Amino acid sequence: MDSAQRLLFEDLIDKAIPPMPAEEGLEDQTSLRHPRKGHGRRRMPANLEREKVIHNLPEERKGCPCCERLQHIIGKQTHKQFDYVAAKVKVIEHIRLTYGCRHCEASNSPWPRILLGVCQ
Fold this sequence. Notes:
- This protein has helices at about 5-10, 10-15, 25-30, 100-105; strands at about 50-55, 70-85, 90-100.
- It is an alpha+beta fold.
- It has a three-stranded mixed β-sheet.
- A hairpin with a 4-residue loop joins β2 (about 70-85) and β3.
- The radius of gyration is 33 Å and the shape is elongated.
């Protein structure tokens, strides 16, 4: 719109467009909101007694299903749980070892790595 045209209709524009609310009202609305808490689980307290339980494969299952050579440990999966025993709380950490065959990894065997060493 040209500035000269705006001068002709200035009164009509001012009446048609209501004034914006003051920023003080916006501050009041934000102060009424409750602070949000973080998502997810909280960490387990460091002062609790800890016990490790290692779930390992038996010796007869450590062989590679492809070439039957002994597999080596390629990783581990860990999860923790609370255990309450007669007014005593401790953390039990379960560790499941995963195995892989060095020979099949080097020769690009068709066996998926996930299937090697999965405890059933």
